[in-house]
Amino acid sequence: MNKKSLQSSLLLFLAAFIWGVAFVAQSVGMDYMGPYTFNGARFIMGSMVLLPLVLYRRKSPKVDRKLFGSAKVTVTGGICCGLALCSAALFQQYGILYTTVGKAGFITTLYIIIVPIMGIFLKKKIPGKVWLGAVVAMFGMYLLCMSESLTLGKGDRYVFICAILFSVHILVIDYFSPKADGVELSCLQFLTAGVICSILALIFEKPELSNFVDGILPLAYAGIMSCGAAYTLQVVGQKNLDPTVASLILSMESVISMLAGWVILGQAMSPKELLGCGLVFGAVIMVQLPGKEKR
Fold it and tell me: Of the candidates 250, 207, 205, 258, which has an alpha carbon nearest to the alpha carbon of residue 231?
């Protein structure tokens, strides 16, 4: 591995670390404010963090003007991505209220398997390893989430719906990203999701200034670090790495969320749940490995 690849790998691992610990911040943030308020504030923070990068790229002579696309496509894409992100994030936030951050991290990562399966509706061929990964992941989910009464916990159900919605979000981004600048698209999607969540917060939660003051640390981490800083690290880190390697490193987010929940919140897992985590993570890795024709 050359020096540039090593640096890029470290940047992506840092992004995965930030995202993994963000599950803890989301859980702790619920002690101070409701899900709508928390998500609204953190997404608006994220868009404000990315705004200077957007302006810099607009003025930089090193950035190809063709990358920006038309304003209409960028705004449309940002709104569509924001709607999907808002829905997914709210289900995740509600799920974290009723489950551990470790479980939430691993269940959310299932989008890596769900996305190619959704490709069926787009008339894409599904590789055999995806179906095998789905079977392994389902068994892992059973060990991770099913109680002795063979019921799926409320929080786990919410987070699984979140994984499906994040899969939709990825497909929407996949459609718009070739037609618009990725940083601008992300900034607009954060702003859209933030505005929608803020409106819902004013209707259902009635947030107060003291909520933001008391919960400023988890809120700032989730908004500034998770939305703004980690996204920038991902953009920079993926430049010198194969997409498969990049996705493998970023999938460490699920492992880090489990470790962070254990170390910071004391949310230990049983041997059965740990085995389930291992199977889900193994399925995610299996799906991302290149086929014979790409080796």
Answer: 250
**DSSP letter string, 83-101:** HHHHHHHHHHHHHHHHS-H
The one-letter amino acid at 154: K
pLDDT in tens, 156-197: 999 999 999 998 988 888 888 788 888 888 899 999 999 999
CA gap 145, 159 in Å, rounded: 11
Measured CA to CA, the distance from residue 228 to residue 235 in angstroms comes to 11
Both structure tokens of 164: 């499906």
Are 109 and 255 in contact by the 8 Å Cβ rule? The answer is no
d(CA 188, CA 43): 10
The residues near 216 (Cβ < 8 Å, ≥ 6 apart) are none
User: Taking Cα atoms as reference points, which of 203, 173, 198, 201 lies closest to residue 84?
Assistant: 173
Distance CA 65, CA 173 (A): 20
Q: Diameter of the chain by CA atoms?
A: 62
What tokens were used for 32? Answer: 């101070």
**pTM for the whole thing?**
0.85
**Residue 251, exposed/middle/buried by CB under 10 A (0-12, 13-18, 19+)?**
middle
Q: Are 116 and 166 contacting, i.e. CB atoms less than 8 angstroms apart?
A: no
Cβ contact 129:292 at 8 Å: no
